[in-house]
Amino acid sequence: MVGTQGRIIIAGGGPVGLIIGLMLGRAGIDVTLFDKGDIVHQEPRAATIHPATLDLLDDLGVYERIEPLGIVCPIVNYYDQRELLASFDHGLLAGETRHPWVLQCEQDKLSRVLFAMSSDIPNLEIRTEIEVLDCSQSADAVEVEVQSADGSRERLRGRYLVGADGARSTVRKRAGVEFEGLTYPERFMIIGSPFDFSKAGYAYRNYISDPVEWYNLFKISWNGPPGIYRLVVPVSPEEALDNDRILETCQRKFQRFHPRSEPYEIVLHDSYVVHQRVAATFRVGRIILAGDAAHLNSPIGAMGMNSGIHDAVNLSTNMLRVLNEEEGEEALDRYVRKRRHVAVKHVQTSTIANKKNMEQRDPETRRKYREEIQRAAEDPVLAKKFLMRTSLIESLRDAATIN
Ligand SMILES: Cc1cc2nc3c(=O)[nH]c(=O)nc-3n(C[C@H](O)[C@H](O)[C@H](O)COP(=O)(O)OP(=O)(O)OC[C@H]3O[C@@H](n4cnc5c(N)ncnc54)[C@H](O)[C@@H]3O)c2cc1C
Questions:
Q1: Is there an atom of ligand 1 within 6 Å of 11 CB?
Q2: ∠ CA 4-128-271 to the nearest 5 degrees?
């Protein structure tokens, strides 16, 4: 058995686990973080980082390192089929945030930056290609069993265990926490092409509702300028898993979205099962959940990683109060109250509504949605209110009112 009772153990080195490791490590706490992968080759799933999150990353000295890797996007457009309904400028948020724009920066780039920054912290030990297999706890300690790539196992003891091990969290399952919610029957496909959609009038961020097949179209920097556009589109599981025809499917999706005589160059494609779920609790004694391990949502609205980063900052701040003996464990319960409230009342509510708006088939409901979003874009007060919600500033301020 290795470890000390003061050590914090983190399962998972995605953006959420790495930020917790960075914050606790910088505060002088001994931390061991395990990731079953190598951290440097993560999937580039999330790409949109909202203003509220940029402020938090800036406080950690991360923003200046990721801005050159991404694309600054003040504008987001909403379409009904191919008709532009509304255009919002995040510049309206000046005075509410130090970053009145969205940064399009893929999450694997963010993780690599955080990983590099972590190497300067002697008391933060990051152990890659080691999987957390099991965890248990007693009144005064938590214990994890891990397995290396060569099959060897060891056990480690610590004071708290943070489960930041993503959607299929082993920690959540071993702690016996229910993951309540639903799974959508269709998958979401991501297809990337260097075709320049700005020539067709699209902004760098576009939500396109369509009763037949909705789309999200975003620019990402990818391997550097000029970048590529990423189309997110629903796909049946049969089509998504038919590898022999996958490029045909990608081509058909792009051609339906924006028909052209030439075929599209497809440079990336992937598909995901999408859930709307929140863990029944984010804390069982010495085991605490954060990020995707605690809550999952559809990517429409780009709130998963963003709200996970907000969890990470809030949990680290509250945990430090306990570790520094400024407060008892009630600080950890405050983290749970605040962040579970945000997950349920803000992130789940918004992302479920976003999907309904994108795919709405009922003409009357579509008409109301059109009118509402057009009215919001035309009135600066309503537009700002809209952006306060979509940029997650509202959810952070709401959480701040909870004790
Ligand atoms: C298509 C798509 C697009 C998205 N776009 C956005 C977006 O634009 N903006 C946004 O905010 N969110 C977006 N998301 C959501 C975002 O990807 C997640 O919310 C985010 O990755 C959560 O970060 P995390 O650190 O909690 O988990 P993860 O990023 O999943 O990291 C978990 C880590 O834990 C490790 N791990 C897992 N199990 C173990 C174990 N047993 N032992 C050790 N290590 C383990 C994994 O290797 C991984 O490195 C998108 C998701 C999808 C699918």
A1: yes
A2: 130
Pairing of strands 160-163, 8-11: parallel
Containing 304, the helix (H) or strand (E) segment is: helix 304-323
Q: Which pairing describes strands 215-220 and 205-209: parallel, antiparallel, or unpaired?
A: antiparallel
Residue 146 CA: nearest ligand 1 atom is 42
CA distance 80 to 98: 31
The verdict on the CB of residue 131 being under 6 Å from ligand 1 is: yes
**Ligand 1 pocket residue status of 34, Cβ below 6 Å:** yes
Query: What averages of pLDDT result for each successive group of 10 residues across the chain (403 residues)?
Result: 73 98 98 98 96 98 98 98 97 98 98 97 98 97 97 97 98 98 98 98 98 98 95 98 97 98 97 98 98 98 98 98 97 98 98 97 97 98 98 98 96
Q: Are 310 and 23 in contact (CB under 8 A)?
A: no
- Would you say 25 and 320 are in contact if contact means Cβ atoms under 8 Å apart? no
Residue type, 400: A
The CB of 347 under 6 Å from ligand 1? The reply is no
Gap from CA of 273 to ligand 1 centroid (Å): 13
Q: 402: which DSSP letter?
A: -
Mapping DSSP to helix (H, G, I), strand (E, B) and coil, where does residue 86 land?
strand
Which residue, among 59, 52, 67, 165, has the nearest Cα to 100 in the 3D structure? 52
CA dist 50 and 63 (Å) reads 12
Measuring CA to CA, which residue among 209, 215, 349, 326 is closest to residue 276? 349
How far is 359 from 366, CA to CA, in rounded Å?
9
CB 82 within 8 Å of CB 197: no
CA 14 to chain centre: 10
